[in-house]
Structure formats: C-alpha cells, structure tokens
C-alpha cells in the first residue's frame, strides 16, 4: 500500500536540493535587483545638491540629505559611485611651484606606491574603495567594528580612513583620518587629524600582523614638519614600502574632498618610478598626453573646479566623430607645447588621439598637466625645495625678530 | 443523431497496430466533424446492454476524456466545448448516463458514475443541472430500486461531491445527500456493495456536512453510524469507515470530545488486531489528531494564545496508552522494503505517528519511549535494535534540546557502533537517526550542539567508513553528512572546527557518487546533494583551496557525461540525471565562490569561465527540444559571477535562452530562464542591447499567453525592471508594449476575488512585480527621456491609490509601493506635483512606514518622503 502524500517523508529526508538551489538563485536575483534599484535611488539623493531651505516652510525640516552617510554611498554603483567617491577623497594637486613657509605651515610624508582608497569599517566588516568607487577589498579588520569579532565593543559605529594599499607587503598605509567611531574629522585641521590618527590607531590592534579577524595590516606613514631634516627623511629616508613621491599637507587645512592646493604631491626619479606618465603599453610617449573632458560647447577642460579650458573643438569634428559632451578625450601635446602668460594658460598645441579608456573617471587636473609638462623639460628639483626651506627659515627668523621688536 | 461506432471502438483496442491506428483516426474524424453527435453516440454505446463490454468501457473512457483533463488549460477548453453543445444533445447524453446506473454490468455502472461526476463538475457550478441531485436521491428512495442502482447512485453522489465545492449545493440538498448516504450504510437494510459505496460516498461528502456536524443530534447519529460501520465484517468497509474517521479527525476536531473514549478503543483494537489496511487507517486517525493539535499550538504561540479554536489535548490525555500502542507497531517491520517508495506498512505508519506525538507533547514523551529504547537496543534480534533506533530517531523533534542532549551524549557512541555492526536494516535506521540528531541538536550558530571537537573526529570517521556500506545505508549517511554540514552554516569560528574534515568528506562523497560496485541513482544524487551542502556551508576563507581543486574534478565529470554512449532512452535519462547533479554542484560552487570577499577566490571561477560555459553549452546540445533546467540555473550564477565578461558567451547561449523562455510545458524551466535573463542583463548592462528585441518579444508573448502557468508572470514583470535599468533610455521603444501589459495586469489585480486566498497571494506577487517594473523603467529614464513615462503616470497613480486603499499588505508589497512613489517623484519631478499635492492617504501611508520595525522599509520611506518634499517645495 502506498503512503498518503502527507506521510511520505517517513525516514526519507525531505530534501530537494534542487528546490533549495532554485530558491537561493531567486534570492540572489532579488537581492541584486534590489541593490541596483537602491543604488539608483541613492544616487538621486546623494548627487543632488541639498535642497535650499524654503523661507515659506512652516516648520524647519531636518536636512534629510545628511541622513545619508558614507555607508549608504558604498551601495552606489557604476558612474554614480565614481562620481560620489571622487567627491569624497581629498586629492592633492601636483606641486608646480614651491609654497612659501614650508617648514612652518606644512607636513611632509613619503607617499607609498599603490592604490589610494577609502577604508570604511562598520557593521562588522571593512571595505576599501578606490578612487573610482570600485571595491578593492572587503575584509575583517581590527578597526572599530571592522570585523565580527568585536561584538561587545560598544554601540555600532563607522570609521573612515584615507589609505594607500601597498601591494608588495599587503599593507594599508594610512595617510589621513576622516571619521573615527562616528566622529567626523572633516572640519579639523591636518595637525589635529594627524595627531589623533596616531593615537586612535594605537588604541586598536590595526597595526598588528594579519590574523583571522584582521586580514590586512595597517601602518602609519611617518610624517614630520617640513624642515630640512623632515624633507630629507621623506625623500631619502628608509621606509618599509616602495616610495612614489612625497606628499605635503598644509597644517591648517581641513579635510576638503576633491582637488585642493592645500595638499600637494611632488616626485622625481629618485623617489618614484613613475615620474613621467606612460601609455597603456607602459612606454613613455614621445609627446605628453593629456585627458580632457568635452563640454557642451566644444570646449575641452580639466577636472578642476572651476575647470581650466585647454582648447575648443570644431563642432563639425565633434559630430563626425560621434562624441558627446562629458566624453573624456585623449590629446597629445604637439611641438607647440603649452603657452603660459602671466601664470595663465594661453594656448595649448593639442592633437586629438582618441577617446579615453572607459575605466577612467576624470579628466586630468591642471596641476598634473603642468607638472608632467615640466617633468619633461625643466622639472622642479629637490634642490628647489631645499632652497625654499632654507630661505623660508631666514624668513621665519626675520619674522621672529620683527615680533621680538 | 447517434451513430453506430461499436466496430471502431473495438478496432481501437485491436492488437494489430494498423487496425488500431485506422480506427483511432476514424473516431477522431467523427469527433472533429460533429462533436455533439459523437458524444451522444458514446453515451448510447455505454448505455446499450447489448453491446460488448469492451466497446462500452472505451466509450465511457473517451467520453470522460472529452470532459476533463489533468492540465488546467485543456480542462477549461473542454468545459467550454461541453457548454457549447446543443442542449438537446446534452439532455440525451445525461439521460443515457443516468440510465446506465441501473445496468446489471458492474463496469458499465461504474464508468457511468465517473462520467456523470465529470458532467456535474461542469454543469452544477453553472447551475445547468439543478435536477441531478433530486434524481439521484429518488433512485435511493423509490421502492423498486435494485441494489445495483443504489450502489452506483451512491458512487455517483460520492464522485459528484469530490468534484464540486460545497458552495455549489444548497443546505437542503446536502441534508438529503447525507441522509441517503447514511441510510445506505445501514447494516440491516443493505447489501455489502451498497454499504461500501455509501461509506466511500460519506468520505467525499464529509466536507459538505459542516452544518450537520454543528448539530449534536445529527453529529452523534453520523458518528454512531461510522463507528458501527468500522466494525463491519467486510475488511473493505471497515477500511473505508476508518478513512472517514481519520478525515473527521482533521475536519471536525473541535467537536470530537464526546466520542474520544469510544474512538480510542475502536482504533486501539484495530491497530492491535485488525488487518494491516485497517490498522493503517486507525493510526492515521491519531496522526491527523496530532496534525490538528500541532497546528493549534503553532497558531496559538504565534497569536497570543487567543486562537478561537479549543485545544482539547487529546494526545496528552491518551499519551500513556497511545505511545505503547505505537511502540508495539515498530516491532512489526517487514524485511527489505525500506528502499521501495511505494511501500507503506504498519511500522512505518507507527514511527511517523510517534514522531508527530513527540512534536505534540514534547518532553512528556521521553519517559514513555526511553525505557523501550533502552530495553530493545541491546537485544540480539535486529527487529528490536531497529525498533529501538527508530523510536529514538522519531522523537528528536519536539522535546527540549536540554533533555535530548543529555540522552544523545550518553547514546551517541552506541549508535556509532550500531552503524558499523548492525544488520542492514539497523544500519539504515541508525544512519537516519544520526542525521536527525544533527538536524535538531547540532546548531553551533544557534548556540547549542551535541557535536564538539571531542566527538567530531570519531563521528566523521564512522560516517566516512559507512559511506562505503550498502547503497541504502550509504545514502542515509550522505544525508547525515548533509545535516552535519548544515549546522556549520554561518557558524563563525565554530565552522573552523569542521574545516579540517572537509577535504576528506568531499573525497568520500565523490567516491560514493561514482561507486562502481553498485549502481544506485538514489545514492548518487544523495552524495551530490550532500556535496553541495558541504560546499555551501563551508567557510570560504578556509576552504577556497579545496574548492579550487574540486572545480576541475566536477568539470571533468561533466565532460565525461558528454561522451557517454547513448543507445536507449534509459541511457539518455541517466545522462540527463548525472548532468543535472553535476550542473547543480557547479552552480553551488560558482555561487559560493562569487560571494567571496577577495578577488583571489573569485578568480577561481573567472579563470575557468570559458571552460565551464563550453560544457554548459554542450549539455544543452544533448537535447533537441528542451533546455536543461540545472544548466540554466548554473548559467545564471555564472553570469552573476563573471559580470560583463559574460557578453562573449551570449551569441552561443542566446538560442537556449529563447528555448527556455518558450518552454510553457515545463513552466519551472521557463520561470528559471526568466530569472537568468535578469542575471544576464544585469551582468552585461547596455551590452545586452542587440539581444533585447528578441528577449522582449518573447517576454511579451509569454505575458499574453493563456497556456503559460501564471506563476511565471510576476517574474517577467520583475525582469522588465532589470532590462530597463540596464539599457536605460533604450527601453523607450518597448514602453508602448510593456507598459500597457502592466496596466492590464494592474486592472486584473483590482478585479480579483478577495475571498480566494490563493488568488490573493498571487495578486500580491503580481502587484509587487508591477511596481518593481515601474520602478526600474522610471529609474532607467532618470538621466534622459523621463518624459516618455509622463503619459503613463496617471494610470500608475490610480494603481498606487488602489493598493493604498488595501487594508492588509505584506511588507514586501508595502516596500515596493513606498519605493515606486518615490521613483515617480524622483524621475518625473514637478510634473507629479499635482498627484502628490493633495493626498492625505499618501502622507499617512509614509508615516506608517516610518513607524515600522523594518529598517529597509523605513529607509525607503525616508527616501520617498525626501523626494516628494523636494518636488513640493520647488
């Protein structure tokens, strides 16, 4: 006699693995669809300017866009993510002339070679995102709430560090701190941020060697006052990583997302393997190449804010080539070079090469183009920096004297 | 007019295929040319006592098949076809059928009863045959009715009740039917044939007797008759009476109190002394009582104790008699039947019931069962050992973890020994019991487990040894491993305990799957399913290397299936089964690996994707007309894992995607393929554009098809969302086709009968998916051409208002609703100001969402509020 369907499971495990696989697939598909829609919706909020407060508003409303933080942004995808993350990292300009008062107002630090990224720890996991918004790693770390191992360590929080991931020793070198346990350091001076970064990091085991709940080691980049000794150390001192130039941070500057002249990068052949840009095959092209963004009106500009106009394309040419505004275009700088008058770009001898590689998110900045141009001809040398510091010391002395008087 | 068709009906049963085919084609021709005459001729044939029984029988079957079919679409078509038949023909046919009920030939009467029920199933709900019931009842009451006529009339009444719903009859009709049926059960007045037919008819009529069961006098009378019938001297009648009792136990649980003493004695005697067929039904009575009480308990605990239905605690009250009775049945095992799915005997029914009793009363069962276990498990007789093990295995769900853990701790070693030394039956049951122990008492993530680092080595060692045992034992061991692995899912550091064994376990499972000493498909699929679970539940950080090594092994095996020699359809089926298992494993590996955090692990798949896809395409090529469901599922996972790289496979894969979407017969395959379309478009984004025309065309055709199972339709709307998000403004050209479909579906939702629970559940899914589709399309147009959607906004708004007015929405629908409102505001901006401007309901709704416990919902509502505000202030 056959059992009724109701009682069939007798001693026969009722497992249909296929059904389970179907359900898991459905769940994955649902989650992906949800994430995709969420990402679009978030983009609308995060990328729109905060709505202006209407005077006619009967009651003051909390500005809702502040409800969204970096954790939400980490759900952004594609161009929206790139756009958002591009706005979050403080991007140093390239040093095309030496700032005054280097020893007084600036810190200097060697820049580790590697990928610049934001490292966010929250909800028991740590995620690093590169400048273009893509995830580099998702891992457990000893940062606050960076792994599931620290359940008991206080209320939920998130922390954000500005790091460079150094491939060779698989270490995150921390260069700046943006948030620590929900406390925002955006509006704090570099001096304050650097000091606290050192302290906060020391409170955790983030600088310990990797372990099960701590996949990558973190390490502080040594910074110092930009006097002669400091500059020398950063430039020629022994460091555990491969150097890619030197960074300068103005002591008084706040953490300002986007390009800023208050953080600078400089390099020469001695402290970096990558002084002059190479092309996709790793060769140094005979002429300097630049990537610029095409605007509605045919102008091609840098990614600075406000953008610097390098040239203007013929509209017929734009149509024939099927280019659209917003495209990133690659140009070679011809023998005519860049004509600078009174510190301003007057004319650039641009030759169209083609559209830029898709992965690329931004046009070059003005300072980068100028630095590259100088690097090919008359670079800013370490001696120039040393000289500036020496003269600045004199200047300071004078100042002290004056004050003494 | 009726035609002479006897010769064709006889020829259609000829041994000579040529004769048969010709006759069948003649009959078909007749049917197509003149259906009413054809049907009439069949009924005349069936009614004619001078015709040979062979042709009468076939006439009845053909007639039945012209009225009813298994699949719903054909069934509906046949019903329509019958309704279109001229009333004069229909009356004649019905008359012939009713006439046949009095035939002296049993088979003709029986066939006619079946056909009558099919006609009734079409005509009664449409009020087209109001006189049928009265006519049948008249057969029962008029003085000159033969016993044959009474028997077939009762049979017809039973079948009719089975076919129609109790809403289709008036209470007076129900009363008369019950009276006729219960009278038919009367011992003094009727022959055994009539009483059997009456008892079976009662079984089908019980559902109609709700009102009668609320009346104590009527109820007691019915119960008395059933109990008396349960003591008939004819086995078949006793069995039918106990079937009625089991059905009454679940349908009328709340009025049984007064009869329980009598019922206990009746069933207890049957279990102990009656033939098996009757004893099984007696046990089923108690299983049904357990089902009811378990449901009451679950409902109660979920709903603050106020269920409205009384819990009579019948099981608890009779526990001390019931449990020994069930334990006794466990000792009545048959030999060598465990492997046969079609077998159901008293020890199986007893074990199943014991498990239900444990779930009903929890700890209270332990003192009654454990002495039996202890007394029997060490006996030399395998029957005792097996019964003891089965008893223990059966009670592992229900009692508290604390109590059971203590028992398992002291008994596990003994069980492991039995797994090595018992006879085949004992080992089979022991492996099952060990699996149940893992299932209910091994949950490191839940904070408890009887498995520790101390006993795990031994457990794994014994299991892996027994996987080489006879195939029935080995398959149960595979299942036990499945449950062991399952416990370590998401178990954090506990899962590391299991990691060191995974390599060996996988090796053993692969060995079990390809054992050469036995050829057992059940073992093979159990081994692969366990392998899947081990991979799925493993800690990917610790097992990535093992999985890296497993992948080429599975690929190799899949590749070997392509070279199997295929001669018979058996070979073909075997190949397909094997491919299904292996594609399943690959799907699990792909999904597991692609969920890893680090690129290095994910690259396990990325570097092998070409080969994996090559094999999947070859698996597809093994069949001509259908696509392989498992390969399809696995390809979805692969598309998800590879992202835009998947583009290079699409040219070759596309035709199978089309095939899957067109597979209406196996709607599961179609449904899975729709999901895979989502995976593919998400992976490829706008690169999928060249294929979109074809895909959209098929999806739209599927939506408008009557033949496709409706469950596939919501996923299709959801996939519109995926496509629109991927190709953004390029979706414009599909809008004039897709959106009207969404509008029509939305209108359909508005017209659904709110009393039909199943339909409302479907409606819920449909609404969610329509909102999802709108959300995706709107967001897809966010950056350009949003004006395309402007003309459709008012209709969407109406739909939103419709769903806003609903009293009960599940959280999924609420979320989709909140989101689509935000999307509307976000994408169409100030154009929607008028819609949102004066709607209190909308503000109230969002307010409710913000007060919810669901974080996702709150977040969505916050966002929507923000979007609506920003258009209202601008």
Automatic annotation (TrEMBL), chain A:
GO terms for cellular component: cytoplasm; nucleus
Keyword terms: Cytoplasm, Nucleus, RNA-binding, Transport
Segments of this protein annotated with the region Disordered: 1-71
Compositionally biased intervals (Low complexity): 44-67
Compartments in which it is found: Cytoplasm; Nucleus
Domain Snurportin-1 m3G cap-binding: 88-263
Keyword Nucleus: yes
Compositional bias (Basic and acidic residues): 18-39
Keyword RNA-binding annotated: yes
Entry's Gene Ontology BP terms: snRNA import into nucleus
GO MF annotation: an example: RNA binding
Chain's role: Functions as an U snRNP-specific nuclear import adapter. Involved in the trimethylguanosine (m3G)-cap-dependent nuclear import of U snRNPs. Binds specifically to the terminal m3G-cap U snRNAs.
Family: Belongs to the snurportin family.
Annotated protein name in UniProt: Snurportin-1
From TrEMBL, chain B:
Single Gene Ontology MF annotation: small GTPase binding
UniProt domain Importin N-terminal: residue ranges: 23-103
BP term (GO), one: protein import into nucleus
InterPro entries: ARM-like, ARM-type_fold, IMB1_TNPO1-like_TPR, Importin-beta_N, Importin_beta, TPR_IPO4/5
GO cellular component, one term: cytoplasm
Major localisation: cytoplasm
Keyword Lipid metabolism tagged: no
Compartment(s) where it occurs, according to its Swiss-Prot or TrEMBL record: Cytoplasm; Nucleus
Domain of life, per lineage: Eukaryota
Keyword annotations of the record: Cytoplasm, Nucleus, Protein transport, Repeat, Transport
Family from the record: Belongs to the importin beta family. Importin beta-1 subfamily.
Name of this protein: Putative importin subunit beta-1
Taxonomic path: Eukaryota, Viridiplantae, Streptophyta, Embryophyta, Tracheophyta
